[in-house]
Design a protein that fits this description.
The longest helix is centred in the first third of the chain and has 12 residues. Helix 1 packs across helix 2 and helix 1 packs antiparallel against helix 5. It contains twelve helices and seven strands. Pfam families: Hydrolase (PF00702).
Length: 205
């Protein structure tokens, strides 16, 4: 063991939930009548989503910009609908988080605008029973992973020292950012590999 772990901090997309950007763009296309490739270029290739993740745009400004970039206004309900269509729960990981909760703290830190956490009960309804209020969007901290400030501000709010936190993410750059911030970290590739890491740390049997 590398030291006491008081908190396991989970990424959301492609860790606790399977996420498909393709499906999200397709759903937005179904809603707006605009081709999926145009949607992808307008939202992701333009840097809009990255700006939303780091909190550079407030909720209303982000949603307005979302519609402006696509070329057709997108309502909050439509945004939530498309975001919901893009995800499905990773049952084994959620079950593992539920087991961990009995022995240590758990929380979620996801690169997303605050609209995600505002409406997480619709988009990811399995989260609240497990994590309660400990579901955080990077935009709330004015920085996005892998920026060490994002981790530091999140942990400060939870009153957990970085050295007592284990972060799990599917992106290597975010894992590196967590380690730079002083956290323990696991690069997620499979539920079984993560479980083995937890066993080695004494957090799972």
């Amino acid at each position: 063991m590398e030291g006491r772990i008081d908190l396991v901090l989970f990424d959301l997309d492609d860790v606790l939930y399977h996420y498909s950007r393709r499906r999200r763009a397709e759903r937005l296309s179904e809603i707006t009548g605009i081709a999926p490739e145009v949607v992808r270029a307008a939202v992701w290739d333009s840097g809009l989503e990255a700006a939303g993740d780091r909190g550079a745009l407030g909720r209303e400004a982000y949603l307005q910009a979302f519609g402006e970039r696509i070329g057709r206004p997108v309502s909050l309900a439509e945004w939530v609908d498309a975001r919901r269509a893009a995800v499905s729960p990773n049952g084994p990981m959620l079950a593992l988080a539920a087991r961990l909760r009995a022995a240590t703290g758990i929380a979620v830190l996801t690169n997303n605008p605050e609209l995600l956490t505002d409406h997480v009960d619709v988009i990811c309804p399995e989260l609240r029973p497990l994590f309660g209020e400990r579901i955080f969007a990077s935009a709330s901290f004015g920085a996005a992973k892998p920026d060490p400030e994002c981790f530091g501000r999140c942990l400060a709010g939870l009153a957990v020292a970085p050295s007592a936190a284990l972060f799990v993410d599917d992106l290597a750059e975010n894992v590196a950012g967590a380690r730079a911030a002083g956290l323990h970290a696991h690069h997620f590739t499979s539920v079984e590999a993560f479980r083995r890491d937890l066993v080695a740390r004494g957090l799972e049997t």
